[in-house]
Design goal:
Helix 2 (21-37) packs antiparallel against helix 7 (102-159), helix 6 packs antiparallel against helix 7 and helix 11 (245-255) packs antiparallel against helix 12 (259-273). The protein is α+β, with helices and mostly antiparallel strands and 483 residues long. The strands form two sheets. The chain has a five-stranded antiparallel sheet, with no helix packed on it. Strands 2-3 form a two-stranded antiparallel ribbon. It has helices at 5-14, 21-37, 42-52, 56-70, 75-81, 87-99, 102-159, 165-201, 206-214, 219-240, 245-255, 259-273, 278-284, 288-291, 294-306, 309-366, 375-397, and strands at residues 416-420, 429-432, 439-443, 448-455, 458-463, 467-472, 476-481.
Length: 483
């Protein structure tokens, strides 16, 4: 086993890029506490762990710790040097070494670490179900927008079907993602990563994310219960180990991750040092009811008056631990109605946008796929109508010379009248120069036309604009006959 301190430090630098080093340190501390709790001295425990660990980087750290302790360094100092524990936990180790309660204090730290890990695991489990549902919804919507909608767009364009507004809006999104989809997805991912980092992890702004989480129905209460349970366990154990109230709240303030509660504990510490009772401390803190319910405040104040403050915090721990366990199990059930509503709205939007044009398309198939002329054909039909009007005007001006003019007054007997139907998705219907002939124009819904002949599925009608033309029978309704 190497014993040269400089050689250990030199080797330690070679393995400084171990990405799992924090996990290795957690495992090391847990095993170290278990070994010394069994009655093994510190140096022997470190030596055993040095032989058993598989991480070369961790071997170097443990060897350096052995060298430091052999040189007379304290355990808390070598833990600090190698960043085994946080600052607030180092204070507990230091007090344990000075008071002869090292093993007890090490177990307090280990239990607290386990409690924190358990609480974090329950919070992650409670939020896993909503996170999975939202993620799947986003993925499905993304696939529909990027891949499905462009295909749908091309199909509708080829069929010349008039699309409702909601479908056109969805298709415009699909066209945008088809062109810029990769760039947009990457940009959204980067923005989301930055947003999560600066909202929940960046030290100067993570209070924003914590405030947001506290305002989420159900989740905010779960965070409070977790904090009260952790606070009760931590304070009761430290007071029972001989820590003063001042030292306990200083360590408590340094250990909490929730900034709003850290400020509360720092406020309490400041007034405790001035000799103020807890009842007065809580009374003077702004919006105290928002952070700590009256039951917790009264329990702490009563424990202080009776001299059983550690017992009061222990009761707070057990009470809110049960509440936290119960609520974490049912949080997914609480979110289900909200998640179902989000899923329903998303599916309904996509379904309406996709199915409504298909419904119109099926309507077209049922009516023989009414042909909708191009704008150029409509203009040509209008020109024909104008020419017919000019013929009528010339006949009125020169009734004696009409041999070469086209007489548009029908020679057939008018048999009745029909009215052009109103149908969803259609603004006008085509009229033809013969059965299955060419389109000569369009007539609007609710237009009343005289008809002079009916053959199969066609009516021969008289239009003031187009003269004698043919229209499909499914596009009109007979309103009277035999004039």
């Amino acid at each position: 086993m190497p014993s040269n301190k400089q050689e250990s430090n030199k080797k330690l630098g070679l393995f400084s890029k171990d990405l799992n080093i924090n996990r290795h340190k957690e495992v090391f501390f847990e095993n170290f506490v278990l070994i010394v709790s069994a009655g093994i001295n510190v140096l022997e425990a470190l030596d055993n762990l040095h032989q058993e660990t598989k991480s070369e980087h961790m071997k170097m750290i443990i060897q350096s710790m052995i060298d430091d302790i052999e040189d007379g360094s304290s355990l808390w100092a070598t833990f600090k040097k190698h960043k085994i524990l946080s600052q607030n936990h180092l204070a507990i180790v230091q007090v344990g070494e000075d008071s002869g309660k090292l093993i007890k204090n090490l177990n307090i730290i280990l239990d607290q670490k386990r409690k924190d890990k358990e609480i974090q695991s329950k919070l992650k489990s409670a939020s896993l179900y909503p996170a999975i549902v939202f993620t799947l919804l986003i993925i499905i919507a993304g696939i529909a927008v990027v891949y499905f909608l462009p295909l749908l767009t091309r199909m509708y364009q080829e069929l010349n079907v008039e699309l409702p507004g909601i479908t056109r809006y969805l298709i415009s999104i699909g066209d945008f993602f088809e062109t810029y989809g990769l760039f947009v997805v990457l940009l959204v991912l980067v923005c989301m990563i930055l947003l999560v980092y600066f909202t929940f992890y960046y030290p100067k702004t993570r209070h924003v994310g914590q405030n947001l989480m506290f305002r989420v129905p159900g989740f905010g209460k779960l965070l409070k219960y977790a904090e009260f349970s952790r606070m009760g366990y931590f304070v009761s154990n430290l007071l029972d180990s001989g820590f003063s109230v001042n030292e306990t709240f200083r360590i408590l303030a340094d250990s909490t991750e929730l900034i709003m509660y850290r400020r509360l504990y720092e406020h309490a510490l400041e007034h405790i040092e001035d000799g103020a009772p807890f009842s007065e401390i809580f009374k003077n803190y702004p919006n105290i009811s928002r952070y700590m319910p009256i039951a917790v405040r009264q329990a702490i104040a009563s424990g202080e008056k009776t001299g059983n403050l550690d017992t009061a915090f222990e009761q707070i721990h057990y009470s809110y631990q049960r509440e936290h366990d119960y609520m974490s199990k049912n949080l997914g059930t609480m979110f289900e109605p909200f998640l179902l509503l989000i899923v329903f709205l998303g599916v309904a939007f996509l379904a309406i946008a996709v199915i409504l044009p298909i419904y119109n398309l099926v309507g077209n198939l049922d009516t023989g796929m009414e042909y909708r002329p191009e704008p150029q054909e409509i203009e040509e039909a209008k020109l024909v109508g104008k020419e017919r009007e000019e013929v009528e005007e010339r006949k009125e001006e020169s009734p004696e010379d009409t041999s070469e003019l086209v007489d548009l007054n029908t020679q057939d007997k008018v048999m009745g009248a029909v009215e052009v139907l109103s149908r969803a998705g259609f603004e006008s219907f085509a009229v033809y120069d013969g059965i299955e002939g060419d389109v000569v124009g369009q007539v609007e819904p609710e237009t009343v036309l005289d008809y002079i002949k009916k053959e199969d599925y066609w009516y021969k009608v008289v239009s003031q604009e187009f003269g004698e033309v043919w229209i499909r029978s499914e596009n009109v309704e007979k309103i009277n006959e035999d004039f």
